[in-house]
Amino acid sequence: MAGFLDQIEPLKQAALAELRAAPDLAALEQARVNHLGSNGKFSALMKQLGALSKEEKPAAGKAINAAKVDLETALVQRRSELELKAALPLEPTDFTLPGRRRLVGKLHPLTQVTEDIVRSFRKIGFVVADGPEVEDEYHCFDALNTPADHPARDTQDTFYLQNAEAGAPPSTINSQPSTLLRTHTSSVQIRVMAQQQPPVRIIVPGRVYRRDNADATHNPTFHQVEGLYVDRNVTVGDLKGTVEFVFKELMGSETRIRFRPHYFSYTEPSFEIDFSSALTRKMGKEWLEIAGCGMVHPQVFENVGYDPELWTGWAFGFGIERIAMIRYGINDIRLFYENDVRFLKQF
Ligand code: DAH
To answer: Which residue of 121, 135, 186, 240 sits with most ligand 1 atoms within 8 Å of its CB, as the best mutation to test the pocket?
Structure first.
């Protein structure tokens, strides 16, 4: 009996030492199997209980159970320590380090310029109008007084779609109605005037398409802003004053505007607009061509059912990319479409 009791303490101490020293959960499990498992050393000792006499058994049983409780307590404690350790980060955290900033996105430079243009026109009572990018020849050309033999209508310049959409108004000149990608936003002038009576005061920002090869100044898709103003007694003076107001807002208060005679089939007289500012001088030029405009042609009014004796108006169209390029000093139009964040985050 004395021999049996003497065995308990050393076995318990050895088991405790191994459990407490286990470096990880796998080692702990191994220690548990070694000592408390069914073939473990402690279990072997318990099996010897049966061989003891009736008098010896209670004291021996009590001693061995107490030792077993100690071992199990040590096991549970070491396990929770190791589980906590496994859940902690490998590297200690330095809470004094600066936080990691989340990158905030930005509006594309073309969107920013478009919004600025729209904001300026809103101040003087214009509203934004919209029209389809997939257009028909009637709205893109015929109704704008652009004859069938005009070079803009050549398949070299315009993307035609193979199947004409059902419901598109047939061309008044060609017998075949053709669907195309609009080459300018001027088509929306027709759509708006056909829908409402004067007065009209709209601007139309939008995407247009041309069969150009991409280079530093051309791209098969780009953006325009169209403007249209129809009322009684509208003059070229109104046109020039309006354009001047908007360009001063966009390009700085010392911006100057110049009109040169030009030809567009939907305006008469027609002009090209040049502007001059610190920005153009930075590009080595006093004057830069920026837009086309003119007084709405009486035939266009006839085409939409307005009486040209009663109504007068002007229209203009300019390229948004060109304005953005001058404003930000960008020398290649293709940069706008590459979506390289190193470019985009500069604006
Ligand atoms: N549509 C012309 C272009 O794409 C620009 C333009 C010129 C629009 C004169 C107009 C205008 O409304 O009156 O080049």
So the answer is: 186
